[in-house]
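Batch manifest, entry 17 of 40.
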Amino acid sequence: MPTKVVKCPICGDILFFNVDKRVVSSRRKYWPAEVRIKHKDHEFIALFDSQLHLIEVRAPTKENKK
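Output type: structure tokens
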């Protein structure tokens, strides 16, 4: 499981987390895979390609909150 380092787009904290390719691959048939990451009292979205390279990190918007 590769370890990723990201800066939370909401609060600015630096986060370290592991990504399990089996979990990401089983959820997506199309790439990039959108993964919601919960952090403290909020969450943000990370996009990964099929090789689990981090493409983008963004805060959720009204349109993509579920």
